[in-house]
Specification:
- By secondary structure, this protein is an alpha+beta fold.
- The protein has three domains: 120 residues, 3-Layer(aba) Sandwich (D-Maltodextrin-Binding Protein, domain 2), CATH 3.40.190.10; 88 residues, D-Maltodextrin-Binding Protein, domain 2, CATH 3.40.190.10; 67 residues, Alpha-Beta Plaits (2-Layer Sandwich), CATH 3.30.70.
- It is 25% helix and 34% strand.
- Bound molecules: phosphoribosyl ATP and zinc ion.
- The site of phosphoribosyl ATP has 21 residues, from α3, β10 and α5.
Length: 291
């Protein structure tokens, strides 16, 4: 068995909004793992990789100290505590926005009006950076949680907090003013040196991840078309690179067109293709892709 310190360590949120998607991503990259009894580690069975299950707030420091080689966390966390690591790639889940908000009945109508007022947040760096960029001199009050209660408790005049559906703002009678930062999950990689074996393994996982992310939402389209309608049909294929065009046996004027479409294929797309002269249209899911 490969000793512990030679196994690649990747930090993943233990229990929260990013957990299921993060673990599913590694599964789709072909990693088979078992969870230990305390649910602190997912032990890679077929590759020397361990997924460490931690609080998302701990991920920046684990990467900075080199305790983990990589980790998945929201950009909101990664950018707030940027130290000793790089973002390898943004992922396709965990979408939310960090926004300024005020009590619904506040006279404040835009961020400019926050000058001289207090803003409560768990993201002081991102909030201050935005205010500085806009030239707004407001006081940033750092809180550890329950930010949405700050105005009611008299601790602040406004908040800067994460929003996804907006339901929490509504429930707390708050009104969104301005988006400070758009966030989604990202894979961050330590800047500390790692062994060539670990580097190679990480790059292998990154290549697989790239393939998984490309496949998500992509479709394979096959159809028949007359040579004359080829240009019109190719133009209708959403997000397709140059398609493969194949002759059809015994039909001089007709060809088969195969293409990978990287954008959504709607019923409307198929109807438009048919109207442009396509027939025998098939849309297939893509299982894996490696470019
Ligand atoms: O225990 P641990 O510290 O790991 O978990 P956590 O409670 O700090 O994090 P968690 O699981 O809530 O969020 C993890 C990451 O998910 C965040 O860092 C973001 O990158 C991302 N994310 C996506 C969100 C949201 N959407 C989100 N809506 N993180 C938090 N929220 C909260 C927000 O703070 C507010 O309280 O949800 C509430 C608002 O949601 P809506 O839908 O009512 O607008
Ligand atoms: Zn957290």
């Amino acid at each position: 068995m490969i000793p512990d310190q030679q196994r690649l360590k990747i930090a993943v949120q233990k229990s929260g909004r990013l957990t299921d998607n993060s673990l599913a991503l590694f599964q789709r990259c072909g990693l088979e793992f078992t969870r230990d009894r305390d649910h602190l580690v997912c032990f890679g069975e077929n590759l020397p990789v361990d997924l460490l299950l931690v609080r998302d707030d701990d991920i920046p420091e684990l990467l900075n100290d080199g305790m983990c080689e990589a980790g998945i966390a929201g950009l909101n966390i990664v950018e707030e505590y940027r130290l000793g690591f790089d973002i390898w790639r943004e992922l396709d889940f965990g979408n939310c926005r960090l926004s300024l908000a005020v009590p619904r009945d506040s006279s404040v109508q835009s961020a400019r009006h926050l000058a001289g007022l207090r803003i409560a947040t768990t993201y002081p760096f991102l909030t201050q950076r935005y205010l500085d960029g806009q030239g707004i001199a407001a006081e940033v009050v750092t809180m550890n949680g329950a930010v949405e209660l700050a105005p009611r408790l008299g601790k602040a005049d406004a908040i800067c907090d994460l929003i996804s559906t907006g339901a929490t703002l509504k429930a707390n009678q708050l009104r969104e003013l301005e988006v400070v930062f758009q966030s989604r999950a990202a894979l961050a990689v330590t800047r500390r040196a790692m062994t060539p074996e670990k580097r190679a393994l990480l790059e292998k996982l990154e290549r697989r991840m790239e393939g998984v992310l490309q496949v998500n939402g992509s479709k394979y389209i096959m159809l028949h078309a007359s040579r004359g309608s080829l240009t019109a049909i190719t133009a209708l294929l959403p997000g397709a690179e140059s398609p493969t065009v194949l002759p059809l046996d015994g039909q001089a004027d007709k060809v088969a067109v195969h293409a990978v479409c990287r954008e959504s294929v709607f019923w409307e797309t198929l109807e438009n293709l048919k109207a442009a002269g396509a027939s025998a249209i098939l849309v297939l899911p893509i299982e894996k892709m490696l470019s």
